[in-house]
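User: Okay, second chain of the day. Same drill as before: sequence in, C-alpha cells out.
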Amino acid sequence: MSHGAVSPGMGPRLARLALAWALFFVATPGVVMRDGSLLVAILAVGMFGAAALRPTGGATPRRVFLAELVVNVLGNVALFHWVRFVTPGGMLWIALVVGAWITLGGASMRLFARRCPVSVSVCCGWLGAELLRTLVPLPFGLGWFLLGHFAHHQTWLSGSARVWGVEGLSLVVAALGGGVAALLLRAKRPSVELGFGGGALAVGVALAALTTPPKSVDGPRVLIVQPAFPQERKMSGDSRTMHADLVRQTLSALERLPAPPDLVCWGESMLLYPLLEAGVADAVQSGIDTPPWELPLDAASLRAYASVERDAVVRELLSRFPRETAFVTGVVVLDVVDDLIRRRNAVVLYDASGRRGPAVSKTRLVPGAETMWGLERFDWVRDLTARMVGYVPDLVPGTATGVLELPARGTGRALRFGATVCFDNAFLDPYTDPLRAGPLDFHLTVSNEAWYRDAFEMDQMIAFSRVACLATGRAMVRVTNSGVSAVLAADGTEVARLERDGRDRSVTGELLATVPVPADPSAPRTPYVLVRDPLRIGLLLAVAGLLAASLRFERSAPRPR
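Assistant: Same drill. C-alpha cells below.
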C-alpha cells in the first residue's frame, strides 16, 4: 500500500477515539451532571486506550500520530469551548497544547505495550503525558483539569489525595481505564489486566479510609457578596455605579444579619479602583513610570488614587461596617517591578479599623488574558490583543501564595489563610506551598468567572477546589463575582453554596457560612504536602523506566527473516 493511500484501519480507530472524547465530554462536571461522572471518565480512558492500541492497519506511525492529533485537538475544542467567550484564539491554543500532550501519551502507550500488559500501558502512557503537561511551564504545558479531578466528588476515593494528591487519583482512574481497554481489545490474561486497576483502586480506597483531615472547630463567619456583574458591564468603565451598587448590596446584607460576621468577602478585582503599593509614590517622584502602553502616572493621579481608597473604600464602606468585621477583596494594585510601575492581580485585607495590609498577588497568570510573556512590547502584538480582548494583558505574577491574618475573635486566636486568585485555583502548588512554609487555617480564593457566562468551567473550578481541600486538609472559601461561590470543608464536603431559585451562577446574592478550621493551630500537614515533589519525580521515573525497558525489549527481539 502506498503512503498516500488511506489505511482501512484508520477509520474505526479514529471513530473510537472520537467516541472517547464524547465520553470525556459527558463525564466532565457541569455538562450532564453537576459533579460529573467518574464511571464515564473511566470508560472514556478505556475507549481512548483501545483506540490508541488498535493495530494501525499498515499506516505509518507518522500518519497515525497526525490523524490522532487532529481528533484529540477537536475533542479538546469541545472541552475548552468556553474559552471562546474570552478569545477564540486562546481556545484553539489550549486545545492544541493539551491535544498534543495527549497524543504523545497515546503514542507512548504503543511503546509500553511492546512489553507491558494493556492496562499498565494505558495507565503509564496517560499518566506520563499528564505529569509532563502539568510540569512543563506555560505556554507549552497546561495543568488544567487532570484525570484525577473526575474523582473529586467520590470522597471514598478522592480522600486518598491527602497522601498522593491529584497525581495518585489520576493513576487510579488511568489504571481502571486501562482495564476497560484490555477488555475491549480482548487482551490475554484478563485477570492480570483487571487486577492492576483493581489493585490501584484498592490502594486509593485504603489511603482515603486510613487518613483524615485534622479535627476541626467552627472558625470565622464569612459573608460572601456576589453581585453577578456581567463581564461586559465590568469592562464598560462604569466603575462608580458598579461600586455604589456593590456597596449597597453589602451594607444591606449586613443590616439583615442577626449578628455581624467576622469577614466580608468580595471576589476578584471587585474593588473596582486600583490601589497603590508602598513605594509607588516615591518611585513616581524619582522618575519611574508605567510602561509606554499604559496611562502615565503623575502627582495628580497619585492623589486621585489615594482619595478613591479613602472615600470609596474607607468612608463609604468600611466606616459603616459592624465593629470587628474585617474585609477582604480582589483588586488590581500598582507596584514597582524592574524600574517600572506594573499591575498585579491581588487580594487585600482591611482590618476592622480600616487599615489595609500588604497585597498578595496571583501567582498563575492566564495566558493571553493576563500575560503575553513579554510579547506586549511589540506594537503589532498589543494592537492584535487589544482588538481581541479589549486591553493589553501585561500583569505581573506573584512569586508565592501570600498568607493573610484575620485578627482573633470567635476562635480566640488569629487565623492565617492563604489567598489565591482565579487561575491559581486550577493547581495544587498554590495551596500546598503555604502549608509547607508554616501553619495555615484555611484557603481563600477570589475569582471572576463572569467571563465564561454559565459554562461548566465553574463546575470544574469546584472540582479543583475540592481536591485542593482534600490534598491539604484545609477548608476553602470560594468568593466569585457571578458564581460558583461556596465554602468547602477539609474533608471535601460542601459546607454551603450560594444559590437562588436553584441556580448557582449568574445570580445576585449573599452567602453567610462558618468556615471550619483546625482545632489545633499547629495541626499536622497531610502527607501529600510533605511528599509532593518526591512523589511527582518518583512517578515520572517509574514511567520513564518502564518506557526504557520497553524500548530495550523491542531492540532485543528477534527480527523476522
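Residues 10-211+531-556 form one domain.

User: Thanks, on to the next one.
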